[in-house]
Amino acid sequence: MQSSEHDSSIGARAPDPQKAGLILDITTTDRWDLVLEQGFSWLLRGFALSIVVVLVWMSWVIFQQARPAIQQFGLKFLWSQDWDVPGLTFGALPYIYGTLVTSAIALILAIPVGIAVALVSSENFLPLWLRSPLGFLVELIAAIPSVIVGLWGIFVLIPFLQPLQQGLYRYLNWLPLFGTEPYGPGMLPAGVILGIMVLPTIAAISRDVLLAVPGELRSASMSLGATRWETIFKLLLPAGASGILGAVMLGLGRALGETMAVTMVIGNSPQISASLLDLGYTIPAVLANEFAEALDNLHIGALMYLALILFAITLLVNIIAVLLVRLMGQQGGISTRVEPTINTGADQPQRLLP
Amino acid sequence: MKFPQTNPPHKPTNPLGAASPAAPIPGLLPALKAKQLSFYYGSQKALEDVSLDIYHGQVTAIIGPSGCGKSTFIKALNRIGELEGKVRVEGAVEFFGQNIYSHRINLNRLRRQIGMVFQKPNPFPMSIYDNVAYGVRIGGRYSRTELDAIVESALSSAALWNEVKDNLHKSALGLSGGQQQRLCIARALAVKPQVLLMDEPASALDPISTMKIEELIHTLSQELTIAIVTHNMQQASRVSHYTAFFSTDEGRIGQMIEFGPTAEIFTAPTHPRTQDYVEGRFG
Amino acid sequence: MTATPTNSDPKSLAAELLHPLPLGRTWFTYGMTAIAFGLTGLALIPLLAILIEILRQGLPHLTPEVFVSLPAPAGVTDVPNGFANAILGTLIMVTIATLLSIPFGVMTGIFLSELGRGAAASGPVQTVASFVRFIATILSGVPSIIAGVFAWGVIVQTMKGFSALAGGFALAIIMLPIVTLTTEEALKLVPDSQRLASAALGANRRQTTFRIAVTSALSGITTGILLAVARAAGETAPLLFTALGSLTWPDGLLKPAPSLSVLIFNYSQSPFVEQTELAWTASAVLVGLVLLTSILSRFFTRRRLKIR
């Protein structure tokens, strides 16, 4: 539209639209504008699809690279224990075992602590000005690069845990779990460090989940005479169960794929030992240690096969996690949303517009 | 409020039939003409069979209890409602004779001719000047002096110029609620629309700001066609020439009950439901 | 306990109200509160311990020298020792990753928020959008080492060599979903009433998107990008077999490149004290960079939002 539009006076009174020049142009569409508008829309779609392409491409590349090993070893790879690079015999079991055991330790440690942090930082135990910095501090752990956590693990955590590990061995060595003499590095320290690293994930998402439980439910429970902790155990945690489980699954996904910190404290020994005090190895750790030096196609293939397994497991875990958290969101959505309006962001605009 | 009751310049000669679509008022040109308009959100019918003329150069108030579809109706007049959800429309709305639901319509051009002021003030998070200039800049290139002139005239028309002329480049979000709403009116005026739709423009404001908005509507009615939705009957009687009363039927579907000159709707309504409503027995 | 008094005598009703809860319930409340606070305190210990250790070990050797010198050969103590090359390498690779991931991530975020959300989006686009959002969420959970393996297969293997480009590509894959999802979040915070107001003034989709939505969300989008940069700067695993690392200055995009994180890893288990010292010093620099970026970005967003 041109500036001449502003010359015409507005709203002359006349009974006849023709005479008053009121047959206004509301139909002409600039062809360029249409093209640009369509182009913009398709451009956005193109970019958006790129993210799908990346995931598919990633799966394809890893699968292709793993093929020599898949053809050579087949599914037997999954339960074979040999890892002999010069002899070109490869089996994944010690790595899978180490990955699962360390992740399990991590979850056992991180779930209670994470939920405690989520409760303390979402319920009104503390004044509001203390609550959100608390959540922020715990989330800050996630911002520390894992190689630095690993460095701290080597120089601080392992020496700190060593007396504890020795104590476990001395007094509980009749338990297979603590049946070997501790070296220092091992699966227990790796699990502890993983627990520290997945804690922020579990705490942060559980906190969001708990905050999504409508406040009226709390008041209702309290008004029936329940104490705070009875409300938490009988109402909040069951109401948020699927979301918290989702948080735990996301934490698990993170633990399974965590590389550097584990590599630095687990001892990197491909063996299967019932004892948590023993050395171990994980899939990400062996990728980190051997990939740069792998020359033989079959060795590369075996590493890629491991990567494929890790990729598949973490994808699965993450999909389950996302679905669980989404399920929670939908349940919450039904009970809190009054009507399907456009105000998808409107519950938060006061952050922008006080 | 101070200004006197405005009477419609042209009295209708024919009596209005109860609950029937409004008969045309001779001598007046409809700027917007809703023809048997039905409106659906998804599969939910919100508005049924509304035929109503918004006359050129007049202020038309749309009143009714909440949920009667008056907002839905006004949002159908510049097709902004379809941005809010999946909607389906039956019937037609003519803008000086052109059906705005025709596929040939360029929505951007249409909405420049039919401006809108929303229930809650929604200034953009930018300066006062940029808020007013926003729509103008979208329409084409203007020199700085041209823009300055348009901004000043729009702000003056919205009775805001004197309050903000020294702070034009400060954030619009620092204004009071009433000032923000007048800024939104100025923003709509700056693109020189033929029609201004106002969806409960004063419902979020204090009484003094409300009064200013009402005075502003009164002034603007000299040169603009205005349709205003309000739940406040006094407001409707103060500012409008014509009034349409909307209500719901048993199925919670909105419909128009009665239309006529404001004075008649408030003093001598023909439909019993209108009577109940204006006498405060309902809603 | 029973909420209903056994008889209607007002005296016993008052007694009922004043009577404390049974001991079990009281102790349960106190006990659980103590446990929750204890565990929360426990959660903070690692963070504090790590930060203290970095300050204790890293700061004493943080001299100007480390910012301008190359790493000294192992065991040689009388030459300047530093990691200037690693800082430069990290910057180069993070820059590549940022340049690659921003257009894709921001545009995808815009797609998710402006085309694929809200009731007005058409059915198919909404389906595509929720699928893309799902994939982005899944991708953000893919272990970083897998991104490295992917970059190895795509770039290192085809170009027959480790390179800064491969490292940057791997980091871009890690940044992409973060930038996408935070961009969408930032855009979601822009009230729809402003989009409506823009549309009511005759703006088309491009104009509303860029002049209203993106402008208002710019600080949030920037925060997201900064968080992604901070994450990428600290990544090690995907660089080990893409950029590899080197002890000299970065030499073009197609040659192996050093990085702070790989240097920390390589020196962490070194028998030479000066190398482990250097690892700590590099950690202090890296953590400083990373934490500063994340805290500052949060701080500024919060402040800007408050002012508005």
TrEMBL record, chain B:
GO biological process: phosphate ion transmembrane transport
Domain ABC transporter: 32-278
Signal peptide extent: none
Pfam family, one: ABC_tran
Cited InterPro entries: AAA+_ATPase, ABC_transporter-like_ATP-bd, ABC_transporter-like_CS, P-loop_NTPase, PstB-like
Entry-linked Gene3D superfamilies: P-loop containing nucleotide triphosphate hydrolases
Transmembrane regions listed in the UniProt entry: none
GO MF annotation: an example: ATP hydrolysis activity
Cellular component GO terms held in the UniProt record: membrane
Alphabetized SUPFAM superfamilies for the sequence: P-loop containing nucleoside triphosphate hydrolases
Keywords for this protein: ATP-binding, Cell inner membrane, Cell membrane, Membrane, Nucleotide-binding, Phosphate transport, Translocase, Transport
Cited NCBIfam families: 3a0107s01c2
UniProt-recorded name of the protein: Phosphate transport ATP-binding protein PstB
Species name: uncultured Synechococcales cyanobacterium
TrEMBL record, chain C:
Entry annotated with the keyword Transferase: no
All residue ranges annotated as the ABC transmembrane type-1 domain in the record: 87-297
Membrane topology type: Multi-pass membrane protein
Entry-linked CDD domains: TM_PBP2
Top-rank taxon, per record: Bacteria
Any one Gene Ontology molecular-function term assigned to this protein's record: phosphate transmembrane transporter activity
Xref: NCBIfam families: 3a0107s02c
Record-linked InterPro entries: MetI-like (IPR000515), MetI-like_sf (IPR035906), Phosphate_PstA (IPR005672), Phosphate_transprt_permease (IPR051408)
Family per similarity comment: Belongs to the binding-protein-dependent transport system permease family. CysTW subfamily.
Pfam family, one: BPD_transp_1
Location in the cell: Cell membrane
PROSITE patterns xrefs: ABC_TM1
Transmembrane segments: 27-52, 86-111, 131-155, 162-181, 278-300
Entry keywords, A to Z: Cell membrane, Membrane, Phosphate transport, Transmembrane, Transmembrane helix, Transport
One GO term (biological process): phosphate ion transmembrane transport
Organism taxonomic ancestry: Bacteria, Bacillati, Cyanobacteriota, Cyanophyceae, Synechococcales
Gene Ontology cellular component annotations, sorted alphabetically: plasma membrane
Name of the protein: Phosphate transport system permease protein PstA
